[in-house]
Design a protein that fits this description.
By secondary structure, this protein is an alpha/beta fold. The chain has 3 domains: 181 residues, no CATH class; 154 residues, NADH-ubiquinone oxidoreductase 51kDa subunit (Rossmann fold), CATH 3.40.50; 73 residues, no CATH class. It contains 14 helices and 17 strands. A hairpin with an 8-residue loop joins strand 13 and strand 14. The protein starts with 22 loop residues before the first strand and ends with a helix. The relative contact order is 0.14. The chain binds iron/sulfur cluster (2 copies).
Length: 445
């Protein structure tokens, strides 16, 4: 796997899937001695204030943080246990965030979820649905609130796995197609949507068959059930490439107008699974399904993990030797975030952990990491799904010529990471473009 980054493998236009020796089925992760739950995210809305104090005993699912600001998302305890401290702690999205540390009760064993039971779809108006999303602590409440007065006709679901390492979303759909379709029907009902498109890769025939079988079964063969279509795509699509996905799904959308203003709401498989957990099982957001994979662990896999579990505990559980790790990334190899410490907790945004050993990836120990000059090979242009000239934009960004970068379409970059992946000179093209985009945005605001 370490050869993935700076070797000839980078010259493949599309990264090979790295799932041949991973146990894909979702397993329950151990519940460890302590969890650390931040009172918010540095990137998603305002922070909550604590509703508990040191020494309090809390129960799984209990609300422990909230705010009077509607955009803040309440925080729930993911375990039964006792509060041992409240204070700043490293967050995997950067910075130190006020967090609560809970010592897990010895009786906390986890439980078997009743995924196979699909209750009738509850009726909601949109306002009540958004309120309920907030109560359950789902970040999606802000997305829907921003679209509160907009007419939504179409729900678009990206069920492709763009990152070659992260298979948690795909695995959720494969194991729980019923709950996912249930959640789509719930969402259609709540936003008065007309149709939903599940965009799936062509080679996922097994999942396709499972979904088709579901449509012919009660209780999902309802009137609205017939509004769900599966689109088979030749290639995976990055999770943030919404316009690209809409075009592949044959929706007539315009680039100069927000998708939501054109009646299209985009949602991911893990978010749909959260909707099912909350509205069908009455469980607030207390866990995530994540992929743990990389050269730093012996037994990679997909795990259902309680929020607040430390990366270090999960890496140990997967047979990792933390002394040999050169890098730990939250998210995928293409666009994930490097961590400065393994003592960061799993948060609502975590979909994967990549512990990597150091001998190639650590810039302090490997010459292979250093970027070379641009050799004008145009590989980045060939591979760019947004039809940009990535090398050129990155160079403008590096020279702080932001207006030129903007003219060359920096803002249309999908941040997929493919240009960095293929560049034979190991230039961090997408990272430079990402920084350039942020700079352009700051100049506008
Ligand atoms: S410029 Fe790079 S990161 Fe941006 S869309 Fe093109 S290939 Fe992806
Ligand atoms: S940035 Fe990299 S991939 Fe793009 S033209 Fe230059 S050397 Fe080639």
């Amino acid at each position: 796997m370490d050869r993935f980054w700076p070797t000839f493998a980078r010259r493949n236009p599309i990264p090979n899937r790295y799932d041949h020796n991973i146990e894909k089925s979702i397993k329950e992760a151990k519940i460890f001695q302590r969890v650390i739950i931040p009172f918010g995210s540095p990137q998603k809305g305002p922070f909550c204030t604590s509703l508990v104090k040191k020494g309090d005993v809390v129960q799984k699912g209990q609300k422990i943080g909230d705010s009077e600001i509607a955009a803040a998302t309440p925080v729930h305890s993911s375990v039964d246990g006792k509060i041992v401290s409240i204070g700043p702690h490293h967050h995997p999205l950067g910075g130190k965030i006020s967090s609560v540390e809970i010592e897990v009760s010895e009786e906390e064993k986890g439980e078997i979820r009743a995924e196979n039971h699909l209750p009738p779809i509850p009726a909601f108006d949109r306002e009540a649905f958004i309120q309920k999303l907030r109560v359950y602590g789902l970040l999606f409440h802000n997305t829907l609130k921003a679209a509160q007065n907009k007419k939504i006709n179409t729900i678009l679901i990206n069920a492709t796995s763009f990152d070659p390492f992260i298979s948690s979303g795909r695995q959720i759909l494969s194991e729980y197609p019923g709950p996912i379709v249930w959640a789509i029907l719930l969402l259609l009902e709540a936003v008065s949507g007309k149709r939903a498109f599940i965009c799936l890769e062509k080679n996922e025939r097994g999942i396709y068959q499972k979904i088709q079988t579901l449509f012919s079964q009660s209780p999902l063969n309802t009137k609205s059930g017939s509004a769900i279509r599966v689109h088979l795509l030749k290639r995976p699509v990055p999770s943030f490439a919404h316009y690209f996905l809409a075009n592949l799904a044959d929706l007539k959308v315009y680039k100069n107008k927000q998708l939501i203003d054109q009646g299209v709401l985009v949602i991911t498989i893990p978010t749909l699974y959260d909707l099912f957990s909350s509205f069908a099982l009455n469980q607030p957001k207390i866990e995530n399904v994540i992929t743990v994979i990389g050269s730093g662990v012996k037994t990679p896999g997909n795990f259902r993990v309680r929020l607040g579990t430390l990366f270090s505990d999960i890496i140990d559980q997967c047979g990792g030797n933390r002394k040999h790790l050169g890098r730990i990334i939250m998210g995928g190899i293409m666009s994930g975030m490097s961590q400065i410490t393994p003592l960061v907790p799993v948060v609502k945004e975590t979909d994967g952990i990549l512990p990597l050993i150091s001998f190639v990836l650590d810039e302090n120990t490997s010459d292979l990491y250093s970027p070379g000059p641009c050799v004008r090979c145009a590989k980045c242009i060939d591979v760019c799904p947004a039809h940009l000239m990535p090398g050129m934009i990155a160079e403008y960004g590096r020279r702080k010529r932001f207006s030129d970068a903007k003219e060359y379409g920096a803002k249309n970059c999908l941040e997929c990471g493919l240009c960095s992946y293929v560049c034979p000179s190991r230039i961090p093209v997408s990272e430079l473009i990402r920084a350039t985009k942020r700079q352009i945005e700051e100049e506008i605001t």
